[in-house]
Design a protein that fits this description.
This protein is of the alpha/beta class. The protein contains eight helices and seven strands; from the N terminus they run αααβαβαββαβαβαβ. Helix content is 40%, strand content 14%. It is globular. This is Glycosyltransferase family 1 protein.
Length: 246
């Protein structure tokens, strides 16, 4: 019997997990595994040394100065009566990403109302992501609605485009490129969880919390989150009810 190389098995397992759960969950699991190895490794040169990455690019986190008024606040885009062009910056979805499925349902509602949707995939890790393969996966999957939306990797040198009326951040890490984009489009935040609570007190906890101070207008999952973001961070919020399937 031919034995499969352990490295090949690990790669196949990781690829399967990425395909099913998407980029955010895959990175979180990798970091958790690395952290356990570091904690359990013996002391010594070269042992327990792993390069840990975050969901947000360090360059983006360092570039945001949320204390100063951003360009899109000084000269906001004038909006007519529509239809509108919307850009959604998100981590790469997986076949079973619950948060992404919720986002895509809202995107289908936007398209049904006559608005245009652009999807930009934001990724901070060295593992390559193919936007076309992600689009094909979404189109084949029964977990996602059918969309006309375009898919592209987010490139800060290009941005979302001058035709975009509104930029939506969809997770704390995507709020950074949304803030920094050169477009004067209105900024919004699709918030499904209080994400700082995902981390112990530290860099990621603080970076996630700071995004609620960026001046975005939020659409939140439930009224509790809307009240919390408004009361504690001064955000203008619009809650939506939780979905139920009967």
């Amino acid at each position: 019997m031919t034995q499969t190389n352990p490295l090949v098995r690990k790669f196949a397992k990781g690829a399967s997990y990425f395909k099913r759960y998407g980029g955010r969950m895959t990175v979180a699991r990798l970091l958790q595994g690395m952290g356990n190895k570091i904690a359990n490794s013996a002391k010594g040169k070269g042992k327990g040394q792993y390069p840990l990455g975050m969901l947000v690019k360090f360059s983006d986190a360092a570039a945001v100065d949320w204390v100063s008024e951003p360009h899109w606040k000084k000269n906001p885009r004038s909006l007519g009566s529509g239809p509108y062009v919307t850009a959604w910056i998100m981590s790469p979805p997986g076949e079973s990403s619950g948060g992404h499925q919720n986002i895509f349902r809202f995107l289908s509602y936007l398209e049904a109302a006559g608005h245009q949707v652009k999807i930009f995939l934001y990724w901070s890790q060295s593992i390559p992501v193919d936007a076309e393969r992600v689009r094909d996966m979404v189109e084949r999957s029964n977990n996602y609605p059918s969309l006309k939306a375009s898919f592209a990797l987010y490139d800060p040198a290009v941005g979302v485009g001058d035709d975009v009326d509104a930029i939506f951040a969809t997770g704390w890490e995507t709020a950074y490129p949304a803030y920094l984009d050169r477009s004067n489009a209105r900024r919004f935040y699709f918030v499904q969880d209080f994400e700082p609570s995902f981390y112990p007190v530290g860099s990621e906890n603080q970076l996630a919390e700071n995004t609620y101070r960026f001046g975005f207008e939020a659409f939140t999952a439930g009224k509790w989150l809307a009240r919390k973001l408004h009361k504690e961070y001064g955000m203008r919020t619009h809650p939506f009810d939780f979905a139920a399937e009967f």
